[in-house]
Design brief:
Elements lengths: L49 E6 L6 H4 L10 E9 L1 E8 L6 E7 L6 E10 L12 H5 L5 E10 L4 E10 L1 H8 L10 H13 L4 H17 L11 H4 L9 H40 L14 H21 L7 H7 L2 H16 L12 H13 L1 H4 L5
Helix pairs in contact: 4-5, 7-8, 8-10, 8-11, 10-11
Length: about 375
């Protein structure tokens, strides 16, 4: 056998498996079924860096909350929100000095709600550095106030958000009851700035009125010496001390006046609804109108269904309506609302018969009556008032 001599410039070639005496049988056969993949370690999702904060007191003012001694600019203002099932009250103190401040308490009354402002804050503000309370608890006068997880409704995007707010603790309520009666009223400066913050964020008018009444009521009910005038309402509404109680007393007759108008409107709707239903029954027993009776070119039955729809729309609106300071001419215009439903039914009928829509040949009074009732129910959109 001829051997190959390596020259000085050549390097030896690496040995192949045969030369290393490795047998094929030494390598085990591994099939796909035998290979079991190892499970990957699950990574927990990191918590959100920011959380929602709901404020309803003086902290609604972003400048107050982001003061250097408080959050120092860490709170990002978002917008108004409402917490349902609670009511604002002023029967607590916010510090050892005994200042009466606002808090919230659960309320099962229909329509109970507290309006406030949403902020986005870093999560680190609710984390406790060692034995000290979290920074967010400090600026909310812990231990007089404690955190509470709530769900608020944010009207801008029409969604519910889980957020944190602060509610008075048992200590704050106990300290309030230990105060002398003459010190259990709301400070004028506090009431003024609370109302200014609420107006600045354009909270609903009925809630502003509720704040005004509650802050004024506390000032009126506390006993004070005759030679002193500690009435906070004059500062709240911007009047002089010479006439502190005139504005307060006038709010009660105004509220009673609106209640009388609402009662009259409710009775009017009930009578009109009964009259329309009675006409339908009488027409079935002893016909009054013929099928050819078409005022404004519209069958009378379509107008009747539109009137019924308008009445139902007004009754639903009245059941959902909360106290608001509407002018008298607006309330008087409400009495024409059911007839707006009848006019909308007439327009719907004329639109269906204009030739724009291809109606089946058997389309009769049933279809037109249904469209008239639906058009009457849409009457509320004409008078819709966004809060």
């Amino acid at each position: 056998m001829k051997t190959h001599q390596l020259s000085d410039n050549e390097s030896p070639q690496p040995a192949v498996p045969a030369e290393l005496n490795i047998k094929e049988s030494a390598v085990p056969d591994v099939t796909i079924e035998q290979a079991t993949p190892l499970p990957l370690p699950s990574r927990p999702e990191p918590p959100n860096e920011f959380i929602w904060l709901f404020e309803y007191g003086l902290e609604m003012d972003a400048a107050f909350l982001n003061d250097r001694e408080r959050l120092n600019g860490s709170a990002h203002l978002y917008g108004p929100a409402v917490l349902k099932g609670y009511r604002i009250s002023f029967g607590v103190v916010g510090s050892s000095a005994g200042q009466v401040v606002a808090t919230i308490q659960p309320d099962t009354e229909y329509g109970a709600a507290v309006w406030g402002v949403l902020y986005r804050i870093p999560r680190r503000l609710i984390e406790s550095p060692g034995d000290e309370p979290p920074p967010l608890d400090k600026i909310h006068s812990a231990p007089y106030f404690e955190p509470l997880d709530v769900v608020v409704y944010e009207p801008y995007r029409k969604r519910e958000l889980v957020c944190i707010t602060y509610i008075a603790s048992a200590l704050a309520r106990q300290q309030f009851h230990l105060l002398p009666p003459e010190q259990q009223g709301i400070d004028a400066w506090y009431a003024k700035h609370l109302l200014e913050s609420a107006r600045r964020h354009k909270l609903p008018g009925e809630y502003l009125q509720e704040l005004l009444i509650r802050t004024a009521t506390k000032g009126e009910t506390r006993p004070t010496p005759l030679e002193q005038n500690t009435e906070p309402l004059a500062v709240v509404i911007g009047k002089t001390d010479a006439q502190p109680s005139t504005k307060t007393i006038s709010s009660t007759p105004a509220l009673a006046h609106r209640n009388r108008w609402s009662m009259a409107f409710a009775v009017y709707l009930l009578l009109l609804l009964l009259a329309a239903l009675s006409l339908a029954v009488i027409q079935e027993v002893s016909p009054i109108f013929t099928a050819h009776f078409t005022p404004l070119g519209v069958p009378w039955i379509v107008l009747l269904y539109g009137l019924l729809g308008g009445c139902i729309s007004c009754i639903v609106m009245l059941g959902r309506q909360r106290a608001a300071n509407f002018p008298a001419f607006v309330v008087v215009a409400w009495f024409a609302r059911p007839y707006i439903g009848a006019l909308l039914a007439a327009l719907a009928y004329l639109l269906l018969n204009s030739g724009i829509f291809a109606l089946p040949g058997n389309a009769g009074h049933a279809l037109f009556s249904l469209m008239g009732a639906l058009a009457g129910l849409c009457e509320g959109w004409v008078f819709y008032r966004r809060a």
